[in-house]
Amino acid sequence: MTCPRLIATDLDGTALRTDGTISSRTAAAFARVEKSGGTLVFVTGRPPRWMHSVAGTVGHCGLAICANGALVYDLHTERIVESHLIAPDILEECVARLRRDVPGLTFSVEYEGDFAHEAAYALGGWDSREVSCGREVGAAALTSLPCAKLLAQHPAMDPDELVRVALEIVGDIVTPTHSSGRALLEMSAYGVTKATALATLAEERGIKPAEVVAFGDMPNDLPMLTWAGTSYAVANAHPDVLAAVDHVTAANNDDGVAAVLENLFRPRGPYR
To answer: How confident is the model at residue 1 (pLDDT cuts 50, 70, 90)?
Structure first.
């Protein structure tokens, strides 16, 4: 079997273990892709401010597509090299529609290098562990600057239902999705997904979809997984993802991505 030219993988819940670390086996599998001449791209919902530890683990090599396709991030320089932002007027309209039709939502925004949130927004994940995270701002300030991602949190709704409702309300001006078990809506500029950014990157390198293998676990990965020539879900993936992919590998905590990469990029002779 010919080695794929590009490997695209989600991070949290897919290549990373549940505690957010990259196992030594997975790190070695990533190195094997690079050593073979393949292109490795991390395609994640994470903002760049959450990528420093990942960059260090992979030796500050390659590119990452962050914020669900809104930002392309150079892991060598740890700088943003491409942006697709939501304009302030769209942000304002989106927040107004959602507040009107979905009571109880609170909002935050990911800018290119900063984070801001309303006072009532409950911080989660990495942000909840930081002593000082982002800026607490009022509603007007929240929508006053272009941003990479608008987030809306609901205290009780089912995550899939929240996305379904959001698509009806604001799907004509932004691209809603979700990537966690919480009712946390993630919105990018209209038409911006993991797939659009990955397709552009691949085209610039003369790589066709058929030469791409992609890995994911959550609904925000679906555009990328359906675009790629070969798609894998980890065993712990969302049911919609499991139903959409070509193959299923072991769970993230069992190094499922590494298992596939070890098979795809078998060394010629002893591997060092």
So the answer is: low
Quote the CA–CA distance of 44 and 119 in Å, as a whole number.
Answer: 26
**pLDDT value of position 113:** 83
Q: Are 152 and 106 in contact (CB under 8 A)?
A: yes
Q: Which phi and psi (to 5°) does residue 232 adopt?
A: -130, 140
Helix or strand or coil: residue 22? coil
Q: What is the pLDDT of residues 56-68, one digit of tens each?
A: 877 777 789 999 9
Dihedral angle sign, alpha carbons of residues 222, 80, 92, 134: positive
> Under DSSP, is residue 17 helix (H, G, I), strand (E, B) or coil?
coil
- Cα angle, residue 161 at apex, residues 160 and 165 outer, rounded to 5°: 120
Q: Decide the pairing of beta strands 135-136 and 106-110.
A: unpaired
Could you read off the pLDDT of 214-261 as tens digits, one per residue? 999 999 999 999 999 999 999 999 999 999 999 999 999 999 999 999
pLDDT tier at 125, thresholds 50, 70, 90? low
Q: Are the C-beta atoms of residues 51 and 81 closer than 8 Å to each other? A: no
Q: Is it the case that residue 131 has pLDDT exceeding 50?
A: no
How many secondary structure helices (H) and strands (E) does the chain include?
A: 10, 14
E strand segments, 118-216: 135-136, 149-153, 174-177, 184-189, 212-216
* Cβ(245)–Cβ(231) below 8 Å: yes
Query: Which of 169, 258, 180, 260 shows the shortest CA–CA distance to 221?
Result: 180
Gap between the Cα atoms of 50 and 130, Å rounded: 12
The tokens describing 28, both together, are 């070695």
Cβ-contact 229, 252 below 8 angstroms = no
| Overall average pLDDT of the 123-152 stretch | 77
Q: What is the chain's length?
A: 272
- Distance separating alpha carbons of residues 164 and 28, to the nearest angstrom: 39
